[in-house]
Amino acid sequence: MKHAAHILLVDDDASLLKLLGMRLESRGYRVTTAESGRQALDSLNQARPDLVLSDLRMDEMDGMALFHQVQKLAPGLPVIILTAHGSIPDAVSATRQGVFSFLTKPVDRDELFAAIEDALSQTAGTSGDGDSAWRAAIITRSPHMERVLEQARMVAGSDVSVLLTGPSGSGKELLAKAIHQASSRADKPFIAINCGALPEQLLESELFGHAKGAFTGAVSQHEGLFQAADGGTLFLDEIGDMPLPLQVKLLRVLQDRQVRPLGSTTSIPVDVRIISATHRDLDRAMGEGDFREDLYYRLNVVNLRLPPLKDRAEDVPLLAKHLVTQAAARHKPFVKGFSSEALNLLASSAWPGNVRQLVNVVEQCVALTSSPIIPEALVSQALMAEENALPSFNDARASFERSYLIKVLKITEGNVTQAARIAGRNRTDFYKLLGRHDLEPSVFKPGATAEEVD
After folding, report:
1. In this structure, what DSSP letter does residue 263 have?
2. How confident is the model at residue 130 (pLDDT cuts 50, 70, 90)?
3. What residues contact residue 350 under an 8 Å CB cut-off, 6+ apart?
4. Boundaries of every domain in the chain
5. Greatest CA separation for the chain
6. Which is higher by pLDDT, 61 or 447?
7. Cβ proximity of 368 and 327 under 8 Å
8. Model-wide pTM > 0.90
9. What's any GO biological process attached to this entry (predicted)?
10. Which residue of 59, 322, 359, 427 has the lowest C-beta tally within 10 Å?
């Protein structure tokens, strides 16, 4: 063991709990004890162990019920079950459900330690006590984020495709880089591209490359990002915005592990791990015909969802202190941090723009402050400036679309046929637009009692 592994030991028999705890500590493990499943879950929320060792028969919550709760809180955390009532069917059932090992009491000392070492060796590096260099760029103490990072560390060891979902600005590219750093490809390139930021032909050329003369302006051969990332990881950000014709070509590359540059007749083998990300609802996009189902299942072998910053409020002061140190080093070394009132205001804000918005606010505060400690008033001013800031093109387009749809539905009193005619769209496309913006035509009909649309 590289560190003193932390074991959460659970048994409602206090004397056995103490005896087994002493035995484990004598072996060099760090032990936390709990006399019930509920107490064990409380302990799990405070400090993440490397392994849970639990009795099966306990009042209120037995070992298997505890196991299922542990898997919700910390997916992949190994659980070993001990029981004096062991049977082969019980053991088979438990291990099929995901319990790492099922041992009968009185447990053999060597058998117990062998099971513990086996569990720890198979999950090495997944707990917060291990090597954390791979995730150094992600600042958090949120249990929610820690669970995401545990899953990321576990999936990093395989080459499966990962789909990162979550709101814009929540840190999907940082997590993609962390997965790359934790993988066997860490010494190879990590290359990122935003699929929604480029027009279709340029995106195709960037991803797959092109031959000289493939199109007007192609004055020389161009190596695509698949070739540039060979041996490493290609991060496809905003994959939900990729045009359908390119989705077909991407699927072919993933299936064949070969890429054919635009205008070329030769395919080139590539060895690339794909991590993709989106803030869009891809299930809805598939239903609307905007995203291919076969590509979705190729990309979404493992799905990791990042929480919005408002769901990890405990991270805001931590992130703000880290960001202000970075910004001060670049611009104003005399700035030392935020006042306690300023930090409280930051922590209580809604953060619709997530971590990206917090970065902007901190940068503004450092740029405008004339004192070493940033006051609450400056934070308030920066937050107000963010609210009035020019939105991104995609956000502005979405806002316009929604406002326009509401207007035509009001004009036509919810008559979709008439509204589609005014908009110059067929009914199918118009219904897709309404679905994208969660608008229900019946709300606009005369006498409707539904809540007013914003």
Report:
1. T
2. very low
3. 310
4. 6-122, 140-305, 314-387, 393-444
5. 81
6. 61
7. no
8. no
9. phosphorelay signal transduction system
10. 59
- Domain 140-305, what fold? Rossmann fold (3.40.50)
Q: With beta carbons less than 8 A apart as the criterion, state whether 153 and 181 touch.
A: no
C-beta neighbour count of 362 within 10 angstroms: 25
Band of pLDDT at residue 135, cut at 50, 70 and 90 = confident
Q: Helix or strand or coil: residue 80?
A: strand
Q: d(Cα 454, Cα 449) in Å, to the nearest integer?
A: 15
Alpha helices, DSSP H only, in 47-108? 63-73, 88-97
Q: Where are the alpha helices (DSSP H) in 183-272?
A: 200-208, 225-228, 244-256
- Residue 92, classified by CB atoms within 10 Å of its CB into exposed (0-12), middle (13-18) or buried (19+), is exposed
Pairing of strands 258-259, 268-269: antiparallel
Give CATH superfamily name and number for 6-122: Response regulator (3.40.50.2300)
The confidence score (pLDDT) of residue 89 equals 61
pLDDT tops 80 at residue 394: no
Angle formed by the axes of helices 172-182 and 143-156, to 10°?
A: 40
Q: What is the pLDDT of residues 268-285, one digit of tens each?
A: 999 999 999 998 889 888
Q: Which numeric CATH code is attached to 314-387? A: 1.10.8.60
Q: Which amino acid is at 127?
A: S
